[in-house]
Amino acid sequence: MSDSKIDCKQLEQLRDSLEAMARNSDDFFEAASREIAARLLAKVIKRTPVGTYPSNSGKVGGTLRRGWTAGTNQAATSYADSLTVHHFGDTYVIEIINPVEYASYVEFGHRTANGTGWVEGKYMLTLSEQEIRQSAPGILEAKLKKWLSGAVK
């Protein structure tokens, strides 16, 4: 029989990297939550209709669209980064709301002013959420691969 020596330094480094990543996994999940929220905001903002008014009315359209970022005129990504991520067990939640009082009427539809007709909803949040639900697994997989590649250098 021969005497063999095994150098386990690389395995120990991998173990240490994986342990460090496990300790910082909340950071990964929060970043992933914010990225998905930013993508949702980008879609819903693009889909939100802007009212058009005569130039002599003094009204300016876009209040509902600006409402998605609380009127801050920030890009969806920077606004999503400022949102709080709530952690409940193994679930991470970011609340995305539009505080404009008529947002739900545009989303789901409403009766006309005289009460005789119906204005169909635009479903800007509903449709955007459905699209994000379909693309989220791919987004998370890519983000996870990139995060794990940090352990295996």
TrEMBL record:
Tell me any Pfam family this protein matches: HK97-gp10_like
Q: Which InterPro entries match?
A: HK97-gp10_tail
Protein name per the record: Phage protein
